[in-house]
Design brief:
Mean pLDDT: 92
Oligomer: single chain
CATH architecture of the largest domain: 2-Layer Sandwich
Number of domains: 2
Shape: globular
Structural class: alpha+beta
Radius of gyration: 24 Å
Helix content: 25-40%
Number of helices: 13
Distance between the termini: 49 Å
CATH topology of the largest domain: Alpha-Beta Plaits
Largest sheet: 5 strands, antiparallel
CATH class of the largest domain: Alpha Beta
């Protein structure tokens, strides 16, 4: 049975189906099968198909069929009008359920149109091969999106007063404290943030100390040289237990080069211009890594197919290698986040993943969960491509993270 959720917040329980609105889970029909988008209060319901995952992040207006464009355009305009009115009235939609703020008649009309669009998508689009992964990622990002950041308002005010000395700090005031990721924001699968989201991915490191934990401290886990290790994994090379850039310094460049120079040379070779790849350092890396093996296996001349079966279309030779590596590294981070998220949930932990910043996973950590630290470390380091060395940091705010060692 096709249905629509009335709000995507977990505490805002409400659906529409069969010309009726339901606001109690116990009253929901048992044969709910298909809807447009996942909502937190549906987590316990298995077997539901979510149409927006079929279209890979496209906006609904991009795929709405011609015969429904007028209907969708009408309800979209009316919804925008309601939102503007609520904004003028200073009603915070994050703290209220949409269905309590707009006429019930409108909800029914909007959901009826959305039902028809949902039905159209499932009839005309193929179910993604990686649907299960897309759904689990969606669920994780939805959980994160409804967790408000603990913003230190005193520090924020201080930065705002010093806006002339700290370029960009004045933009922090008035921001939503919620991180809303777009899992389809890039071709490679790297996360982006949506409009009006807290800009965690672009926030200057000097401003991160305005974010305090809700629990006892932040714990950050990230891969040591994610892209390097992914390349090694694809080539079936043994993962070094030491820092990968020191490994390069000794095994690629003969030891006469600093770690920072090694790191810069690697990324210039992998992501840089043709001249960077033809530099002496680039040629040394070219001799060490047989990129032709990677390209032959994961690029057909037009499309990239990553080790995780992600397809990236319209890729030329210049971008093929870095798309393979970047996409695989980004997805590997998300997969590790999903494992850690599951571990915390299964132990009914107060600790929770608060954000993902590129290849780093940040946990708002409760001291009572420290028995799980060894398991979390092991989950992060165990990958499809071997055992990765990971960096672990700890701090009382997001700006003062310091190296931390976990035994085991």
């Amino acid at each position: 049975m096709i249905f629509q959720t009335l709000d995507d917040k977990q505490e805002c329980v409400g659906i529409y189906c069969n010309n009726n609105l339901y606001f109690d889970k116990l009253d929901f029909p048992k044969d709910l099968s298909t809807t447009w988008k996942y909502s937190g209060h549906l987590r316990e319901r298995t077997g539901i198909e979510y149409a927006n995952l079929y279209i890979g992040g496209k906006d609904i207006k991009e795929i709405v069929p011609e015969y429904l464009k007028d209907d969708w355009g009408d309800v979209s305009k009316r919804l925008s009008s309601f939102r503007r009115s609520l904004q003028v009235a200073k009603v915070n939609l994050q703290d209220n359920c949409l269905y309590d703020l707009v006429p019930k008649r409108f909800l029914i009309e909007m959901c009826e149109v959305k039902n028809k669009i949902t039905e159209y998508v499932l009839e005309n689009y193929q179910r993604p091969e990686r649907y299960s992964y897309l759904l689990r990622t969606c669920q994780l990002l939805e959980d994160i999106s409804h967790q408000p950041l603990n913003i230190n308002k005193k520090k924020l005010r201080a930065y705002s007063l010093a806006a002339t000395k700290q370029p960009g700090s004045n933009r922090l005031t008035g921001l939503s404290p919620y991180i809303k990721y777009n899992q389809f924001g890039t071709k490679t699968g790297r996360l982006t943030t949506k409009e009006k989201s807290f800009p965690i991915l672009t926030l200057k490191k000097s401003f991160r100390d305005v974010i305090d934990p809700h629990n006892d401290y932040f714990l950050e886990l990230d891969f040591n040289g994610a892209e390097v290790r992914v390349m090694m994994g694809i080539l079936d090379m043994v993962q070094p237990s030491c820092d990968v850039h020191k490994f390069h310094a000794e095994n690629v460049f003969g030891g006469n080069i600093s770690r920072e120079e090694v790191k810069r040379s690697f990324f210039a070779w992998l992501y840089g211009s043709k001249s960077a790849k033809e530099s002496p350092e680039g040629k040394m890396l070219e001799n060490f890594y047989n990129k032709e093996i990677i390209l032959d296996k994961h690029w057909d001349g037009k499309c990239v197919y990553t080790p995780f079966r992600k397809k990236i279309e319209d890729v030329d030779e210049h971008h093929a290698l870095n798309y393979i590596v970047q996409s695989t590294a980004a997805e590997l981070t998300l997969l590790q986040a999903l494992k850690i998220h599951h571990l915390l949930q299964s132990h009914k932990s107060r600790s929770r993943i608060v954000c993902i910043i590129h290849d780093a996973i940040i946990i708002d950590f409760d001291k009572r969960d420290e028995r799980l630290l060894t398991s979390i470390k092991k989950l992060m380091s165990s990958t499809k491509f071997g055992e990765f060395k990971i960096n672990i940091s700890k701090g009382t705010n997001l700006g003062n993270l310091k190296e931390h060692h976990i035994n085991g």
